[in-house]
Amino acid sequence: MYNILDFSLDELKKWMTDTGESSFRAKQVMDWLYKNQIWDFDNMKNIPQNTRQLLKKNFYISIPQLVKTYESERKDTFKYLYKYDDGNIIETVVMKYNRGNSICVSTQVGCNMGCRFCASTIGGMVRNLSSGEILAQVLACQKQIGEKISNIVLMGSGEPLDNYDNVLKFIKIVNSQYCLNIGQRHITLSTCGIVPKIKKLAEEKMQITLAISLHAAEDTLRTTMMPIANKYSIDEIMESCRYYINKTGRRISFEYALVQGVNDSDRCALKLVHLLKEMLCHVNLIPVNKIKENGFKQSSKNNIENFLRILSKHGIETTIRKEMGSDIDAACGQLRRSYLDSKKNRERV
Ligand code: SAH
């Protein structure tokens, strides 16, 4: 049995012809799935009975089950906990902006990267999500909010470049006309900086935005926050970013989570200026979200604004990420964590 959401149109066409069906049935099935939001073969009315039976014998349509919803007070951020067929739980966030709805999808159950400030990585990585399982988060959320999603960020749990093939396939499918037709420029992939995979991604020459979770401009400091920094130096990351820019012409986005007393000094800001001053880029400052498992504290408002001032003064385009949904633990992996913790506690009682 296959999850039909893992199939591209071409793959389904091939399957149809290989099984003696007409290849145009593939497009009809895709239309039901993506244009009509019908996730039951029996309701695909223009597909003949015997083809439906054949589909049912060989495919399932894996839409995760919604187990919990959190809604921010301002009703602009929604966080959903979804359960896949094997019982694994992931979280997906929807943010409503004036310019459209944005979704933050998870790419793995858990994460292996070990960033010290991140809740997603606490239990390690359980498994990769398939392209169809990532896509199903978008499908389920669209149905849930009754509106279209126009932007996708791959910034939920998991390291997208550690699940390269499935993530690439997801981007290609969700971008296709037969699927949700979400433009590549409306898709952002965020990575902690896996250098060989950044280069590989550059070769795809896609128009997506690459976001690098930098968080420190010096290796010595970065290694204390992110174990991956022991493997790839900042110099190597910068070199791969220049390569990416050369190949794609796309501006890179650098994420910098500000932690009180760790990476938010004037000196840190000037180091960052020095690192990025020649680069086609944008810096996104993120007031770090406190998670209960570590001692990382959010920088003061003053420090955040001061950091922004230094970068801007030196001509580096910088924004402070609007904090949405911090009242519902909307930062990376926090919900899944607290859900698993409370489940454990309930089981212990
Ligand atoms: N693994 C990828 C994508 C998932 S994390 C990556 O590292 O980019 C998405 C972003 O959230 C990253 O920039 C990550 O560093 C950041 N992040 C994780 N925990 C956070 C927290 N507690 N507060 C603020 N940002 C956090």
From TrEMBL:
<dbReference type="Pfam" id="PF04055">
    <property type="entry name" value="Radical_SAM"/>
</dbReference>
<feature type="binding site">
    <location>
        <position position="289"/>
    </location>
    <ligand>
        <name>S-adenosyl-L-methionine</name>
    </ligand>
</feature>
<keyword id="KW-0963">Cytoplasm</keyword>
<dbReference type="InterPro" id="IPR048641">
    <property type="entry name" value="RlmN_N"/>
</dbReference>
<dbReference type="InterPro" id="IPR004383">
    <property type="entry name" value="rRNA_lsu_MTrfase_RlmN/Cfr"/>
</dbReference>
<dbReference type="InterPro" id="IPR058240">
    <property type="entry name" value="rSAM_sf"/>
</dbReference>
<feature type="active site" description="Proton acceptor">
    <location>
        <position position="91"/>
    </location>
</feature>
<keyword id="KW-0808">Transferase</keyword>
<dbReference type="GO" id="GO:0030488">
    <property type="term" value="P:tRNA methylation"/>
</dbReference>
<keyword id="KW-0411">Iron-sulfur</keyword>
<dbReference type="GO" id="GO:0000049">
    <property type="term" value="F:tRNA binding"/>
</dbReference>
<keyword id="KW-0408">Iron</keyword>
<dbReference type="InterPro" id="IPR040072">
    <property type="entry name" value="Methyltransferase_A"/>
</dbReference>
<keyword id="KW-0949">S-adenosyl-L-methionine</keyword>
<dbReference type="GO" id="GO:0046872">
    <property type="term" value="F:metal ion binding"/>
</dbReference>
<comment type="function">
    <text>Specifically methylates position 2 of adenine 2503 in 23S rRNA and position 2 of adenine 37 in tRNAs.</text>
</comment>
<feature type="active site" description="S-methylcysteine intermediate">
    <location>
        <position position="332"/>
    </location>
</feature>
<keyword id="KW-0004">4Fe-4S</keyword>
<feature type="binding site">
    <location>
        <begin position="158"/>
        <end position="159"/>
    </location>
    <ligand>
        <name>S-adenosyl-L-methionine</name>
    </ligand>
</feature>
<dbReference type="InterPro" id="IPR027492">
    <property type="entry name" value="RNA_MTrfase_RlmN"/>
</dbReference>
<comment type="similarity">
    <text>Belongs to the radical SAM superfamily. RlmN family.</text>
</comment>
<dbReference type="GO" id="GO:0005737">
    <property type="term" value="C:cytoplasm"/>
</dbReference>
<dbReference type="GO" id="GO:0070040">
    <property type="term" value="F:rRNA (adenine(2503)-C2-)-methyltransferase activity"/>
</dbReference>
<dbReference type="GO" id="GO:0019843">
    <property type="term" value="F:rRNA binding"/>
</dbReference>
<protein>
    <recommendedName>
        <fullName>Probable dual-specificity RNA methyltransferase RlmN</fullName>
        <ecNumber>2.1.1.192</ecNumber>
    </recommendedName>
</protein>
<feature type="binding site">
    <location>
        <position position="190"/>
    </location>
    <ligand>
        <name>S-adenosyl-L-methionine</name>
    </ligand>
</feature>
<dbReference type="GO" id="GO:0070475">
    <property type="term" value="P:rRNA base methylation"/>
</dbReference>
<feature type="binding site">
    <location>
        <position position="118"/>
    </location>
    <ligand>
        <name>[4Fe-4S] cluster</name>
    </ligand>
</feature>
<keyword id="KW-0819">tRNA processing</keyword>
<dbReference type="InterPro" id="IPR007197">
    <property type="entry name" value="rSAM"/>
</dbReference>
<keyword id="KW-1015">Disulfide bond</keyword>
<keyword id="KW-0489">Methyltransferase</keyword>
<dbReference type="Pfam" id="PF21016">
    <property type="entry name" value="RlmN_N"/>
</dbReference>
<dbReference type="GO" id="GO:0002935">
    <property type="term" value="F:tRNA (adenine(37)-C2)-methyltransferase activity"/>
</dbReference>
<feature type="binding site">
    <location>
        <position position="111"/>
    </location>
    <ligand>
        <name>[4Fe-4S] cluster</name>
    </ligand>
</feature>
<feature type="binding site">
    <location>
        <position position="115"/>
    </location>
    <ligand>
        <name>[4Fe-4S] cluster</name>
    </ligand>
</feature>
<dbReference type="InterPro" id="IPR013785">
    <property type="entry name" value="Aldolase_TIM"/>
</dbReference>
<feature type="domain" description="Radical SAM core">
    <location>
        <begin position="97"/>
        <end position="327"/>
    </location>
</feature>
<dbReference type="GO" id="GO:0051539">
    <property type="term" value="F:4 iron, 4 sulfur cluster binding"/>
</dbReference>
<keyword id="KW-0698">rRNA processing</keyword>
<keyword id="KW-0479">Metal-binding</keyword>
<feature type="binding site">
    <location>
        <begin position="213"/>
        <end position="215"/>
    </location>
    <ligand>
        <name>S-adenosyl-L-methionine</name>
    </ligand>
</feature>
